[in-house]
Amino acid sequence: MLKTVVKKGSYHDSVVLMLLTNKISAIEGVKKVSIMMATPANKDIFKQSGLDTEELMAASANDMVVVADIDDDALLDTIMEQTEEFFRQQSAKSGEKKGAESVKSWDKALQKLPDANLAVISIPGAYAALEADRALDEGMNVFMFSDNVTLEDEVKLKQKAHEKGLAVMGPDCGTGIIQSVPIAFTNNVAPGSIGIIGASGTGIQELTTIIDRLGEGVTNAIGIGGRDLNAAVGGITMMDMIDAMEDDDAVKVVIIVSKPPAKEVRDKIAARLSNFSKPIVTLFVGEKPEYHEENFYHAYTLDEAARLAVGLVRGEKVPEAVADVDESTFYKAEDHKTIKAYYSGGTLANEAAMLIKDAMDVKVPPEDIEGYMLQLDGNIVVDLGDDAYTQGKPHPMIDPAKRIECMQEAVDDETTGAVLLDIMLGYGSHEDMAGALLPTIRELKAKAENAGRKVFFIATVCGTRRDYQGYDEAVHKLREAGVIVCENNKLACRTAIRAIGRDFVEPEKEVRVKEVVDAPKGVPSEKLRALLSEKPKIINVGLKSFAEVVEQFGCEVVQYDWMPPAGGNVELIKVLNFLRHYDGLDIDEANREVIAKVVASQPVIIDNVRAKEVIPELNTGKVILHAGPPVAYENMPDPMQGSCVGAVLFEEWADNEADARKLLESGEIHFIPCHHVKAVGPMGGITSPNMAVFVVKNMTDGNEAYCTMNEGIGKVLRFGAYSEEVVDRLRWMRDILGPTLGKAIRKLGGIAVNPLIAKAIAMGDEFHQRNIAASLAFLKEVAPTITKIEMDEKDRYDVIKFLSDTDQFFLNIMMATGKAVMDAARTIERGTIVTAMCRNGYEFGIRIAGMGDQWFTGPVNTPQGLYFTGYDGEDACPDMGDSAITETVGVGGMAMIAAPAVTRFVGAGGYEDALRTSTEMTEITIDRNPNFIIPNWNFQGTCLGIDARLVVEKGITPVINTGIAHKIAGYGQIGAGTVHPPIECFEKAIKAYAEKLGFTS
């Protein structure tokens, strides 16, 4: 029975989740389990394992998913408890280390380390190419540990790097040493004068560790990836590195190692190396060269290449290593025994396959089977690091499970005479792989002996005496258990081959005159020279352990705690990259222009009048304005429809509810979004011709905006109530409150809003759920003038009493202010700043500067928060209102930290949660508003400029403080909380803007 748990927005790197999967697999009763991020590639792996579920398929790339095959439902609790404990332990271990400084975006990483020159990328391959492209644009070289990058992307990246004077090492580059700093799965190797350019992983490790144990060193070992010498790639990184190594005075001898290149690439490399000015050793694993050339040596094995290089540095021949083993007990050829070889990486496995084929005198390559380097007459060589074995599972360098399984199968095969394996030491490898394998080796040796058979276990330990696992300790453990341990892989292979009664011949090579070809030499860029001559400054994108290691070696490093941008949607990532690199317009500069208008705005309350006096559209028949983007009456939620009933009764277009509803359903009434006529409205937003509205003018640009007045709390129109009490209050506001305030405002010559906001934010308002200070500040402005107006004393008292009692009165002024400010800002009509957010109970809509009046919508969410006694989430109406204009301008939920008194009311929990919320909002905004300072936020300005690109990239949507209406009209407000827009609004907006600028998918 499959059980699924989806942990939304919980991102962990693949290595950590692989180790966790292994841990959970050991729980009794768990038949099968997989724990991975729900990326498209991982979903395929789940499917292949028979672990795909509906919940999994609905999850996003930023969600961690646990799928377990269990019979006991209670076991799921145990699994999740152990999962949480595992992460707690991981966190504790991380906390014990100083560690590199962590950030969550490229922008923050570059702020911390602006002169970074190397990006180390170890994230899922579907995204690695996109992040590598970003790194190149930032002027950084790239070390791409990630695999599963398409050949097409590799070609594009390497061509781009070459044009920029940079290098892309990889993809699938497991090993590198740069200025003696180990990168990824690498050993602690002494610095020295030998330079290496190699395909990707274990080959470089074998070379560097042999060189180290021989007493020489390597300062730079550059991995180029397994496909660089493919015809499509053309050896771009290899050729650039050959030029750079020749230019590097610290390098005395160069080794080049890889699988055999494509013929045209080989010819190009051979021609270039023929006029190389330093001694060079080449090794194309699988080929058996018959001669050397002067200063141009051709090795057969990794050991030969290493010894040649050391000999060239010293000017003397380095003797061969020998195996200290009693061969008298070995099998003879006629016993027909076989070798089973299980390796951690491709190059060592490839070398083993080559030597075994040589010993068997096989000329024709055997059948190519995924994961197998060799399958011949019962002899097998398996690369357990191949994708066939590591998809969704830990690499054999860090987990012994697959190798243990393979060795058990090998001993069960009666033909097996030798089991051959490598033990990889170094950074990234298991802390004691020898110790982890020994119990199984002892058990299997005993099993074979009990069956009257001999199985020779033969190993090579790839490491140095500085590796933290301890080279001598690993060798000693293995030998104590009866394992034959050889100095290098060639010797281990030869010993295994002799153990079954065979051998291969490695003849002495003559040295011929080198044929020099007139091939062009490239001039390495200053950036490549710097890469090989200075300690790298690194932005580590992915596996944190890589950052921890380079920091130990004195590197400046910033840890980028990467999560899939745009929810892992590759198409949207391409859109983001297009907008980032767009040549026709500096979008960042356009966005700064938009927010400069916001900062420069001078909103002033200039009047209070009937809506029809300032909104011409209300004079063209029966017209009602509503909140949000356009919506048909039948799609309005019940409270909004109830507000429409109230408006019809208020306007006396009908004198009872039944007739009002008939009129509304008849199509005679024309509905217009408030936003389309320079207005905004709270909750339902219903505004009719004779309702009183504030007029706010932005003096900087001369534009106006309008909003109805706040009715107070309880049964009010904005929450869907339409009783006689509600309608009577609206008429009083139209006839008494509005005109009184209009007279006072005009007598005052207008009231500047910015000073009121600045004062109130320092007194604990955030201007969406808390407006007490601002409402009182407004009353303080108008009250003296109201006392002088000629009017009925009771009316005067009622007006002042209403203003005194209505704590939220300023909200509607803030809304009109936000509309006036953002309407002026969006005249820029360039960039990706959000200029409006609103909702109609059916859809949420946003506008961005570069798309003018166009709405981008998605299904509206229901607020989450605290409820009045007797109500809960089942009673809540989907979100409504234009009041999110406050968040658009940077207050409301965006300034949660300013209003500690209200944080619990809106469900934020308390000060720390409010601080976290406001800090998170800085991730999606581009600046701070210097006009509105928040004292308890270290006197920083409010967040300013929601960038739709950042929202999509980071998956962080703006938080909106809001009231919660009952889903049935007439009940009114039942609570308050927060709500988030659907991210698809922002995704649609940036995609449309990119298409406007010429993007094609």
From TrEMBL:
Superkingdom per UniProt: Bacteria
GO cellular component: cytosol; succinate-CoA ligase complex (ADP-forming)
Domain CoA-binding, first and last residues per copy: 192-284
Molecular function via GO: succinate-CoA ligase (ADP-forming) activity; succinate-CoA ligase (GDP-forming) activity
Residue ranges constituting the ATP-citrate synthase/succinyl-CoA ligase C-terminal domain according to the UniProt record: 343-497
GO process terms (BP): tricarboxylic acid cycle
Alphabetized Pfam families for the sequence: AllG (PF06545), CoA_binding (PF02629), Ligase_CoA (PF00549)
Protein name: Acyl-CoA synthetase FdrA
Species of provenance: Sellimonas intestinalis
